[in-house]
């Protein structure tokens, strides 16, 4: 059974184990930038504002354990195993003065990919965003991670107007990532989705997808689950 838990990270003296480097395997998409990026990610993962959903393997089904705040537990089924097979790191932040849920990491180990777990976790994130009256879910994907990009596009995420390539194409060429979003209300839609003629937008989106399909496969930079 796999169990999904949503909680804040605990300190070194706590009983909750944080994902290790092995569990957050980012070396391939970041390449030579990984050593410095790893330090940044380690700091991000222990920040007070970080929230998590952990998925653990127990037997042959899913159960959930949700902890939004310390001291408040909602357990649907007990889990005795301690094998981490996936997790989401997310935060409640302001982007362009709009409250959003920003997904910092989505990781699913290879043996658990292709079974709908990544999609399930993103649906949980979207539910959290809607229940919390957030305007959007936002995330960052490395350009090298074509599978992850296709995964999020399939979930109807779009390239945000705040993504470097949308702000300034020349700046976008220098950056190795894109910002994606899914909006839930009008203010977020007006700020994060590209403002252009619908016909032109459709053409531009098709070019993006075609470009992604032509590139070689890779692992994700910030969001590591590439499969639905």
Walk me through the structure:
By secondary structure, this protein is of the alpha+beta class. It has a nine-stranded mixed beta sheet, sandwiched between helices. A hairpin with a 2-residue loop joins strand 5 and strand 6. It starts with a strand and ends in a 14-residue tail after the last helix.
Determine Rg (CA atoms, Å): 18 Å
Structural class: alpha+beta
Please tell me the overall pLDDT.
72
Tell me the major beta sheet. Answer: 9 strands, mixed
CATH architectural group? 3-Layer(aba) Sandwich
Biased composition (Basic and acidic residues): 13-25
Family: Belongs to the acetyltransferase family. NAA40 subfamily.
Region (Disordered): 1-29
GO molecular function, one term: histone H2A acetyltransferase activity
List keywords for this structure.
alpha+beta; 8 helices; 32% helix; disordered N terminus; N-alpha-acetyltransferase 40
Furnish the topology, listing elements before pairings.
Blueprint: E1 2-7, H1 27-30, H2 34-45, E2 51-57, E3 62-66, E4 74-75, E5 83-95, E6 98-108, H3 117-131, E7 136-142, H4 146-154, E8 158-159, H5 164-167, H6 169-174, E9 177-183, H7 186-192, H8 198-214
Parallel strand pairs: 1-3, 6-7
Antiparallel strand pairs: 1-2, 2-5, 3-4, 5-6, 7-9, 8-9
GO molecular function: histone H2A acetyltransferase activity; histone H4 acetyltransferase activity; protein N-terminal-serine acetyltransferase activity
Region (Disordered): 1-29
Biased composition (Basic and acidic residues): 13-25
